Amino acid sequence: MRRNLMWLGLCLLVTVSSAQVNQSKVSEFARSYAERHDMTIAELTVILNNAEYQQSTVDKISRPAEGTMTWGRYRNIFLQDNRIQAGVEFWKTHEEVLVNVSEDSGVPEEIILGILGVETFFGQRIGDYRVLDALYTLAFGYPKRSSFFTAELEKFLELTEKEGLDLYSIKGSYAGAIGYCQFMPSSYLAYAKSYGEGDGCNLMEPEDAIASAANYLREHRWETGGPIAARVAQRINPKDVVSSSSRPRNTLRYYADNGYMPSGNIAPARKAALLELEGEEGMEYWFGFHNFYVITRYNHSALYAMAVFQLAEAIKEARERDL
């Protein structure tokens, strides 16, 4: 009987699903998932047949802002007065939670706010794509990253079962990220943390999102009290030693010897990446330290990490003016 249901389900998948989708991949996923989980192929077929291909999802992921914008343009999206003020108000509303989470995780309150501010404007822009549709589309209709999103679709099904969530109603980003802090399903399962005593975690609730964003950074080895980024103070006969990634590999002493003078009182032996960013008034040179690299584990773009850092600093300064 189970074998008959499996073949029936696979046939239904082929006849119902969208033409833009790789049907063999859908069938392979259905068979594999059913074999490894407590679900029949017929039950999984019902779920997948209720997923819809979204061309706009493919269009958006094909041209992410981090890959097409200069730092100057990217910065102007996030370093706006309304976003900064929204961060100050969010801080006031959730001050107790932020203080407790920061003390527990070692992640500064303003950095948590920087993450939430860049990701979703503090929960105001969580996304209006059904997560099921987004992941289905990218798993089976976007070959370039099919493996990644197939795994995320599997994690999404596991997540909804584990947390008792309605998989048909959860909305998020065009890439399938969920909640205030925009966790992909795999990150939700691995790093989401409830604020308080409850077992479950709901990233649509600000308290859990605050705790989870901080936990993500902590689990990726956030250095409590460590520097994040510092602008190069002066260039003197600089050599071409700009870093190819955000991972710190050379010391500040090395960069100084090659013409890049650090600002502030940071130990010369501390490692950093030398970042070159195209600002509105020309190239900007920054040192990104270990904690900057940790932020890029949330999103691998240096533009993203710099936006989080600068938004965090701007919110902190604005709040201090209000006190």
Structure, explained:
The chain is an alpha+beta fold and 323 residues long. The chain has a domain at 2-50 and 128-178: Bacterial muramidase (Helicase, Ruva Protein, domain 3), CATH 1.10.8.350. The chain is built from 16 helices and seven strands. The strands form two sheets. A five-stranded antiparallel beta sheet has the order 4-6-7-3-5. A two-stranded antiparallel ribbon has the order 1-2. Strand 6 (271-279) and strand 7 (282-288) form a beta hairpin. The longest helix has 21 residues, at 302-322. The protein is globular and about 65 Å long.
What is the secondary structure topology, with strand pairs?
Elements: H1 2-16, H2 23-36, H3 41-49, H4 55-61, H5 65-68, H6 71-78, H7 81-93, H8 95-105, H9 109-120, E1 129-130, H10 131-141, H11 146-163, E2 171-172, H12 185-191, H13 206-219, E3 229-235, E4 250-251, H14 252-257, E5 260-262, E6 271-279, E7 282-288, H15 290-295, H16 302-322
Antiparallel strand pairs: 1-2, 3-5, 3-7, 4-6, 6-7
Helix pairs in contact: 1-2, 1-3, 2-3, 6-16, 7-9, 7-16, 8-13, 9-13, 9-16, 10-11, 11-12
